[in-house]
Structure formats: structure tokens, C-alpha cells
UniProtKB/TrEMBL annotation:
Keyword Oxidoreductase applies: yes
One Pfam entry name: DIOX_N
PANTHER family reported in the protein's UniProt record: 2-OXOGLUTARATE (2OG) AND FE(II)-DEPENDENT OXYGENASE SUPERFAMILY PROTEIN-RELATED (PTHR47990)
Protein name from the UniProt record: Gibberellin 2-beta-dioxygenase 1
Natural source organism: Datura stramonium
Keyword annotations: Iron, Metal-binding, Oxidoreductase, Vitamin C
Length: 369
């Protein structure tokens, strides 16, 4: 049984809804979302293509123990099913810790409650988060899961480097492996609420669990239980529902990687819709660079004749400060685009691999999905 947080119900009027639109059917989804076997000999090529076309793909043969995943999900549900008084002991999120409804500090609201942890040892926020119950077990499972996600994403980033033929091989993965990597981990819980969902549907709208956004970090990986809700936006604006798969992982290209690829890769816009009957739990690891890391188009990729640099260089710290001043759906990446009198020359692409390049996206808060 899922225990609903009373404050969530009281403030429903502030939670956004969205109109129904052309959402692709589940039968068509399988042919759109790339499924990549990390052990396949052509994994590098397939990952590059997925990053260009969707900025989103599913990975299998990831070698992450299922036992750790199920244990962590079980402990997360124990926490989220506690009374509101008990859960509040782990908050308020500022930005780390327990939070509900409010996403960030600028008025964004969703049908969600969450736990957010930093992996940056220079920050002491985790030490001040009190998890009722067996805190040592919970935090131990989080640490084990984060380590597995970091290793998997580093493997993916090294395959990207190999696929792009850039050296050194760890040019991207080193940012996540750096001891000062500003990565974070988030557990999201979307409680079911039949009454409120019916109100939304009767008006021809969907109840928003987490509003549309892109992830600002380098790369992120999400896994959820067997409840649907995650959607990604295609180039034509159509929202594609992502079928849940509790045994696989879905990877998002982040805004920082879009910048480093000089627009070759797409930072995918995505959102989460609430379910009227079932609880959804998602686990997201956001792979971020150190705060002092300079983010800009990689010089080794700027060799195409006539190609212009699309973004001004910035540090990850500068980007975070800029993003925190804006709202979930704001186009934050546009603040760092270079301005040209003439339209810049885009990187050349293989027409079979890429329909077009997207230069700007709505950039969401740091810790979502």
C-alpha cells in the first residue's frame, strides 16, 4: 500500500497538467528507441547514431547486478511509504535531501517526492540527511548503485570517444571518474492518485509528475520500476512514451555533452506523467564534471572545413549558477550560444544517421526524470 503525502494533495492546484497530443503508440516505440548491447562489436557506432538522432537509448548486457537494484528499490519504497513526519526528517531539500512537489527554488511543481544525494566529497550535504530506519543499509546500497552507474556510463563515454575517433580515450569519462566529479543521485517517487488524475483527464489533460526539461550534466542514466510515465520528445514535437524495463537502463545525453560535441549530439527533452493507479519509482544517476571543469566544443572535433564553434566556453560551476536562476522549462543553453551575423556552419553529418541538428533545448533542473 502506498501512503500518500498529505501536502501533495492540498497543493494539487499548483501542479501542472498538459494537453493530450500526438503520442506514439507502444507498438511503434520499439522501432524508435535504440536498444544497444554494450557487448556487441558495433556498440560504438550504434551509440553515436543514437546520440545524434534521439539523445536517448536503452542499454542491455550492462553487467549491473539485479540484486542491488531490487534491494535499493525496496528500501526506497520503505522510506516513501513512511508517514510524512518521518520523511520530513530527511529534508528539506536544499538542494539535497528529501523534498516533495517543489522542484528547485523558482516555482516549479510536480506530482513527485524525492531523495537527492551528492557524490561530490567536497560537499557535506549527505552527512546531514537523516534516513529513518536502517540508514547505514540505505546509504550503503546507494553507494554501491552509484558506483555501478558511474562505471557503466564511463564505459559508454569511452565508446563514444572511440566512435568519434578522439584521443585520449578517457577524454569524457575522466570527468566522471575525477574524485571531485559533481555528480548526483536521485530517487523519485510518483504516488498514484486516482481522484486527481481523473480531474486532469476529464479536462483533456495529463497530470504532470515532472515537467519537460533536459539534463544539464554530461550524461545521465535512469531506471524505473515496471510503471510507465517517462516520455521523450521527438524532433517533430511528438511525445514518445518509453515502456518501462526494470532490468535495463535508459541513457540521456546531457547539455554539457551537446556542447562538447558542438551540436552533433542532442540533449533530449523529456518529462514524466503521473499514473492514476500505480506508484512509480525511478533511480537516476547524473554524471557531472568537477565544478571547475571548462565545458566547450572539443578542439579535436573542430576540424570540419568551415565549421564554426556554436557555444561559448563555460565552467560547470558557471552553468549551475546560471541554471538555478531560471525555471524548469527555460531555454538556458541559449545563454551560452555564440552569436554570429551569418548563420553558422553546422558540423557535417551522415544523412543516414541524422535528420538534422538541434541547437537549443529547454534546460531543466539538475536532478530529474
Amino acid at each position: 500500500m502506498v501512503v500518500l503525502s498529505q501536502p501533495l494533495v492540498e497543493n494539487f492546484s499548483h501542479i501542472k497538467t498538459c494537453k493530450h497530443n500526438n503520442t506514439t503508440s507502444s507498438d511503434h516505440t520499439a522501432s524508435i528507441i535504440p536498444v544497444i548491447d554494450l557487448l556487441a562489436p558495433d556498440a560504438n557506432t550504434l551509440i553515436i547514431k543514437a546520440c545524434q538522432e534521439l539523445g536517448f537509448f536503452k542499454v542491455v548486457n550492462h553487467d549491473v547486478p539485479i540484486d542491488n537494484i531490487t534491494k535499493l528499490e525496496s528500501e526506497a519504497l520503505k522510506f516513501f511509504n513512511m508517514s510524512q513526519i518521518e520523511k520530513d526528517k530527511a529534508g528539506p531539500a536544499n538542494p539535497f535531501g528529501y523534498g516533495n512537489k517543489r522542484i528547485g527554488s523558482n516555482g516549479d511543481v510536480g506530482w513527485v517526492e524525492y531523495l537527492l544525494f551528492t557524490t561530490n566529497p567536497e560537499l557535506t550535504h549527505n552527512k546531514s540527511i537523516t534516513i529513518p530506519g536502517n540508514s547505514l543499509l540505505f546509504l550503503g546500497l546507494v553507494k554501491e548503485y552509484v558506483s555501478a552507474m558511474r562505471n557503466m556510463l564511463c564505459m559508454v563515454l569511452e565508446k563514444i570517444a572511440e566512435g568519434l575517433k578522439i584521443e585520449p580515450k578517457n577524454v569524457l569519462s575522466r570527468m566522471l571518474r575525477d574524485e571531485k566529479s559533481d555528480s548526483c543521485f536521485r530517487l523519485n517517487h510518483y504516488p498514484p492518485c486516482p481522484e486527481l488524475q481523473l480531474q486532469a483527464l476529464s479536462s483533456g489533460r495529463n497530470l504532470i509528475g515532472f515537467g519537460e526539461h533536459t539534463d544539464p550534466q554530461v550524461i545521465s542514466v535512469v531506471r524505473s520500476n515496471n510503471t510507465s510515465g517517462l516520455q521523450i520528445s521527438l524532433r517533430d514535437g511528438t511525445w514518445l512514451s518509453v515502456p518501462p524495463d526494470p532490468y535495463s537502463f535508459f541513457i540521456n545525453v546531457g547539455d554539457s555533452l551537446q556542447v562538447m560535441s558542438n551540436g552533433r549530439f542532442r540533449s533530449v527533452r523529456h518529462r514524466v506523467l503521473a499514473d492514476s493507479l500505480k506508484s512509480r519509482v525511478s533511480m537516476i544517476y547524473f554524471g557531472g564534471p568537477p565544478l571547475s571543469e571548462k565545458i566547450g566544443p572539443l578542439s579535436c572535433l573542430m576540424e570540419e572545413p568551415g565549421e564554426q564553434i556554436l557555444y561559448n566556453e563555460f565552467t560547470w560551476s558557471e552553468y549551475k549558477k546560471s541554471a538555478y536562476k531560471t525555471r524548469l522549462g527555460d531555454n538556458r543553453l541559449s545563454l551560452f550560444e555564440k552569436k554570429y551575423n551569418n548563420k553558422p556552419t553546422l558540423p557535417s553529418t551522415d544523412d543516414n544517421n541524422m535528420v538534422g541538428l538541434i541547437l537549443t533545448h529547454n534546460l531543466g533542473k539538475f536532478h530529474t526524470t
